[in-house]
Amino acid sequence: MADFYTRIADYDVEIDYPKYWRARRYEHLSEALALGHLLDSHLADWTVDLGGGFGRWYPLLRERSDRVMLVDYSLSLLQEARRQWGDDLPLVRANLYWLPFARQSFRSALVSRVLHHLAAYDRAFAEMSRVVAASLVVDVPNKRHALARWRARLSSAGPDIQSHAPINRSVTGDTHLNFHPAAVMASFSRQGWRVSGARSACSFRALGRVPLLPSGWLAGLEGPLQRWGAGAMLGPSILTAFQRPLEPTACATSEPEELLRCPACRGRFFSEPSRLVCRRCGAHFPILADRFWDLRWPRP
Ligand SMILES: C[S@@+](CC[C@H](N)C(=O)[O-])C[C@H]1O[C@@H](n2cnc3c(N)ncnc32)[C@H](O)[C@@H]1O
Ligand SMILES: [Zn+2]
Question: 140 C-alpha vs ligand 1 centroid, how far in Å?
Answer without folding.
Answer: 13
